[in-house]
């Protein structure tokens, strides 16, 4: 398979950002939350917070036929078990609420929301577990950073790479990634080799397919249990949705008891 053509799917220019109207819910309480059911995939709902999604698809017009075929195949795989695709290791009970976060390292809203989610997850008794998805929409440096983070996972360094890339003021050039690898203690030669591995490209394709399934129009985006959210939301909103998902049983969308 031509990897450069596969990468066309993953290198989405700033055109996507220009069209993406981010929905920001600054501080909704539980009584303020308004949801709308999603027909496909069944069992999920979307948080409505002000302006509704325009439905813009950032992948339209930016694919070769091979790219389109790869994305279609990834969507089929994701739909076979959408919750496993979202949350990776699915909780076995509804007491723990899973969160799937979709972000781009150079999206300023993502940096705020990623820090917020990481802090919430680290709180004792928070009852949430975050699965991080790379959705590089802002050009080649975004894709390079996403591939490096996923490749670092093979050396147990994904959390370290993810954290550093999210707060770094520097662009992800090959030189910066080498410096970062050396600083964290990652084998740089192996990192570079793994960045173009089939596994990394497939992970990016699956995340892109999920973004299409849930009609994400940009980053940040996330799914909390069975609630789909576009845009940055406040800590209070996240906590309110987590509590609601725990009480109402997010597992209904995933066949979790």
Automatic annotation (TrEMBL):
Alphabetically, the GO molecular function entries are: oxidoreductase activity
The signal sequence is none
Could you tell me the keywords of this UniProt record?
A: Disulfide bond, Oxidoreductase, Redox-active center, Signal
SUPFAM superfamilies given in the database record = Thioredoxin-like
One Pfam family this chain carries? DSBA
Which InterPro entries does the UniProt entry name for this protein?
DSBA-like_thioredoxin_dom (IPR001853), Thioredoxin-like_sf (IPR036249)
Query: Is Iron among this UniProt entry's keywords?
Result: no
Zinc-finger among keywords = no
| Chain ranges of the DSBA-like thioredoxin domain | 99-239
Q: What is this protein called?
A: DSBA-like thioredoxin domain-containing protein
């Amino acid at each position: 398979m031509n990897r450069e053509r596969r990468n066309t799917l993953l290198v989405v220019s700033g055109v996507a950002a220009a069209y993406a109207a981010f929905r920001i819910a600054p501080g909704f309480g539980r009584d303020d939350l308004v949801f709308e059911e999603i027909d496909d995939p069944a069992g999920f709902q979307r948080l409505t917070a002000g302006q509704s999604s325009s439905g813009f698809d950032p992948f339209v017009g930016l694919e070769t036929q091979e790219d389109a075929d790869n994305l279609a195949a990834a969507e089929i795989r994701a739909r076979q078990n959408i919750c496993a695709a979202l949350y990776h290791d699915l909780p076995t009970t509804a007491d723990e609420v899973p969160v799937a976060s979709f972000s781009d390292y150079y999206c300023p809203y993502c940096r705020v929301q990623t820090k917020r989610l990481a802090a919430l997850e680290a709180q004792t008794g928070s009852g949430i577990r975050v699965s991080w998805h790379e959705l590089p929409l802002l050009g080649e440096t975004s894709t390079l950073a996403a591939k490096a983070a996923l490749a670092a996972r093979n050396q147990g360094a994904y959390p370290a790479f993810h954290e550093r890339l999210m707060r770094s003021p520097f662009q992800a050039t090959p030189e910066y990634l080498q410096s970062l690898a050396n600083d964290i203690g990652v084998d740089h030669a192996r990192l570079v080799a793994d960045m173009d591995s089939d596994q990394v490209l497939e992970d990016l394709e699956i995340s892109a397919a999920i973004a299409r399934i849930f009609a994400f129009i940009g980053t940040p985006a996330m799914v909390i249990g069975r609630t789909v959210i576009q845009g940055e939301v406040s800590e209070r909103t996240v906590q309110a949705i987590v509590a609601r998902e725990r009480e109402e049983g997010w597992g209904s969308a995933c066949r979790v008891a």
